[in-house]
Design brief:
The protein is of the alpha/beta class. The protein is 42% helix and 14% strand. The longest helix is centred in the N-terminal third of the chain and has 39 residues, at 2-40.
């Protein structure tokens, strides 16, 4: 009997070893094919058109990827808005006027870089061309940002900001999920794309005023029936933080469903007044 168990265990280990070899082989072949394609069919950077000669699947050159202007360290401790020229005094948290007035329902929001110049074009590639390797590259940067923030960014589940169902059907994908899926894998956290839903579409106007931005998302999001969010720390992912209104609306829906905390994380952050009442700034 013992011999049979030992033999079965050995066979199982052998099968596991073979599966691991196959996965490794597939990974090597994928990398090798990328390298061969880059050598024999070199492409141009999708932003500056400089010739790409490396084996990376990200269709941007090193110079463009390095040009993104990072959000500085001196920021509002809640929403992450840059506060140049200010410094924290003693134990008093450094807050912007919006967060002093407790504007947002999320606990904290952070962004990788400013929404300007080359990053605008990179985000458009992600949003309209479904370039998954670029999403994975940004996910790596977001993971680094979380690590730098430490325990304050702890989460139990990763959730992308949803698109309205008709828009996602037409586009075929949700650009926020191109970021949240690889980030969840990197963090070894469950990915719950179906937890949130958008019940109302964004207005058709290309450019919205501050008032329209806030009004367009007021009550626009809800948790799906049966979603398990009680006492969960939710990491909410989107591509761009413009005013914080979308993250705020999602956070309110999650809080109402029982979420313990909501942390917002975006690739880009717009440099603009986030509130309709500009006098607050």
């Amino acid at each position: 009997m013992a011999g049979g168990n030992s033999s079965g265990s050995t066979a199982a280990e052998q099968r596991k070893s073979v599966r691991g070899w196959i996965r490794t082989g597939r990974g090597w072949l994928a990398g090798a094919s990328d390298a061969l394609v880059s050598v024999f069919f070199p492409a141009g950077c999708r932003i500056c058109e400089k010739l790409l000669t490396g084996a990376s699947r990200v269709p941007l050159c090193v110079e463009c990827l390095s040009s993104f202007e990072r959000v500085p360290d001196t920021i509002c401790e809640i929403c992450g808005r840059p506060l140049p020229g200010l410094a924290r005094k003693d134990e008093v948290p450094l807050l912007c006027p919006a967060c002093t007035s407790k504007t947002y329902a999320f606990d904290r929001a952070r962004s990788f870089a400013f929404y300007k110049d080359t990053l605008v074009r990179a985000i458009l590639l992600l949003k309209f061309e479904q370039i998954e390797p670029l999403g994975a590259w940004f996910a790596e940067r977001l993971a680094e940002l979380m690590k730098a923030e430490g325990a304050a960014m702890a989460a139990d589940v990763v959730v992308p900001v949803p698109l309205y169902r008709e828009r996602e059907r037409v586009r075929g994908y949700n650009q926020a999920a191109l970021l949240s899926k690889p980030l969840a894998r990197k963090l070894r956290l469950p990915h719950k794309a179906v937890l949130l839903t958008r019940a109302r579409p964004r207005p058709d106007k290309q450019v919205l005023s501050l008032e329209e931005r806030w009004e367009s998302v007021r009550g626009a999001f809800a948790t799906r029936s049966g979603s398990q969010v009680d006492s969960k720390r939710v990491l909410l992912i989107d591509d761009v933080l413009t005013t914080g209104a979308t993250l705020d609306a999602c956070a309110r829906a999650l809080r109402e469903a029982g979420a313990k905390s909501v942390i917002g994380l975006t690739v880009a952050r717009a440099v603009r007044n986030p509130l309709p009442d500009a006098r607050a700034w």
